[in-house]
Amino acid sequence: MKNVFFLFFVLVNFQFTGAQVFTTEIIKNSGDNSKRLNLVILSEGYQVSEFAKFKTDAVNYTNNMFNESPFKEYSNYFNVHIIYVPSNESGADHPGESFDPEETPDALLSPITSADTYFNATYDSYGAHRRLFYEADGNYANQTEVKINSVLADNFPTYDQALILVNSDEYGASGGEFPMSYTGYWGPKTVLHELGHSMFNLKDEYYPGELFTEEAINMTRESDETLVKWKNWVGTNNVGVYQYTCDTGNCAEWYKPHQNCIMESINKSFCPVCTEGIIEKIHDLLPPINSFTPNNDNAISNAAFPLEFELNLIEPLPNTLESEWTLNSASFATNQDLVSIQEEDLTIGTNTLTAVIIDNTELLKVDNHETTHVSTVTWTIEHSTLGIESIESSNTTFTVSMYPNPVLDVVNLKFESDNTENVTVEIISIDGRKIKSETLTNSTVNSINLSALPSGIYLTNFYANKVLLATKKLIRK
C-alpha cells in the first residue's frame, strides 16, 4: 500500500500549496522501505528551535507503540520516519467554541489562544473541546488536507500511514485519514487507539453514534456466540458478545467482543479480537517474504550441486512463521530457511520446488471463519543429462476464505492471488476419505452444495499446482 498517487493529487491541487521539502529522518529501521510498512510522523506546533523535542517525543511514541502487543511481536514489519515541519509558533489553537456541557463562555476548559502553526491544529473542533484536529471546520480542513498531502508527497510519498504529533500538553486527539495527538501523558496510548481506526479499520468499543456503526472486525449486529465473527475467541481471555450501552440511538442493536479494550478506553490494551484484526491487516499489507535466492534477477544456469535455495523472511518476535517445502509435490523439508538439493533429488526435465509460508501465531484463531494468508515461493528447475539448464522463480501470495462455517447446505469458497488462476479444493472426511474435489477460480466466490453430506467435521485442503497451501476445518450442521 504505497501512496504514490498523492504525487498526482498534489499536482492537481498545486494552486493551494507549493512544494515544501523538509528534513526527514528514520527513527526505526527494520529494513528496506519497499519491504516494510512505513509509518510517518509529522511535527505540528514545533518551532525550529524545538525540533530536538519533536524527535524525543516521536521516539517516545514509537517506543511505546512497539512495546504494545501486537506491534511488539510484529515490530520487524515496520519502519518509522519523521518529517520536521516547522511552525512559526508553538502549540495549537483554543478558540473556546466547544459544545461540551462542562465548558461555558464563563468557564472555559482552556484560555482562548491562537497559535500560528503549519497545519493549524485546533482544539474545540466540531464542537468537542478534546477533539484536536487540523482546522476547526470542514471547509478549512479540506484546504489543510491538501497541505498535508503535499508535505507527504514532497518528502515521503511511499508512506503507509501518517500521523501528526502536536506540541501540546493538553489532552486532545482525533482520528481519520491522518490521526492527530497531543504529546502529554496519554498521548502514546491515544495514538494506538487512533491508529486502530485509521490503519486497521477497528471501531470504537464505546458507542460511537449511529453514523459510525457498521459491521466490522470488532462490531456486529450478531448476538449468537456460535455465529459471531469472533466466535473462535469466545470464552478466551474474557472475549464474549457484549451489547453496547447508551441512553439514545440504536446502540442496543450492536455488539462488541470485549469490555476492556483500548478501542473503548485508552488506559487498556488491545483485546484479542482487535489484536487478531491488526495482525491480519499487517499480513494484507505486507507478505512475510523479504527476499529469496536464487531469483530471476540472478539467473542460474550450469549450476553445481548441491543447489541451495534460501528464504529471507520478516520474522515476528518470537518467530511464528512456518515453512513447508515440497519438491515435485513430495514433502522435502519443514521449517527451514535454507535447503540443499542433490542431483539425485531431481528428475530429468522440469522440477518444481515450492516453499509455503504461513504465520502460526497463537494470536490468530482464524481457521474457521476468516481469511488465511499464505505466501509461496516456487522455483522451476530445468534439469538434463548435461546438468542444470535454468532455474526460474516466482513469488505468490494467497488469501483463502470459507463461509459460512458451520454450514448447513452451501459453503462459499474464495481465493485471491496475484498470479495464480486456479486452486483445487478437496473436502476430506475425518477418516481420510476424499469426498469432493473442486476447481476454484481466482477472485470468484465458488459455491459448493454439501446438503448430501452427513453432519460432522471435515477438512478442506487447498492446492495450487499440486502443492498444499492451507488446510481448514469445515463443520457440516
Structural account:
This protein has about 475 residues and is an alpha+beta fold. The chain has 3 domains: about 25-100 and about 110-200, Collagenase (Catalytic Domain); about 200-285, no CATH class; about 285-475, Immunoglobulin-like. Helix content is about 15%, strand content about 30%. It has 5 helices and 24 strands. It has helices at about 5-10, 50-65, 140-155, 185-200, 270-285, and strands at about 25-30, 35-45, 80-85, 120, 135, 160-165, 175, 180, 240-245, 255, 290-295, 305-315, 320-325, 330-335, 340, 350-360, 370-385, 385-405, 410-415, 420-430, 435-440, 445-450, 455-465, 465-475. The strands form 6 sheets. The protein has a 7-stranded antiparallel sheet. InterPro entries: MetalloPept_cat_dom_sf, Peptidase_M64_IgA, Secre_tail. It comes from Algibacter lectus. This is Putative secreted protein (Por secretion system target).
| Secondary-structure-derived class | alpha+beta
Q: What CATH first level of the largest domain would be assigned?
A: Mainly Beta
CATH superfamily of the largest domain: Macroglobulin (MG2) domain
Give the uncertain stretches in residue-range form: 1-17
Radius of gyration: 26 Å
Residues in β-strands, percent: 25-35%
* Number of domains as seen in the coordinates: 3
Spatial strand order of the main sheet: 14-13-16-17-18-19-22
What is the H/E string?
A: HEEHEEEHEEEHEEHEEEEEEEEEEEEEE
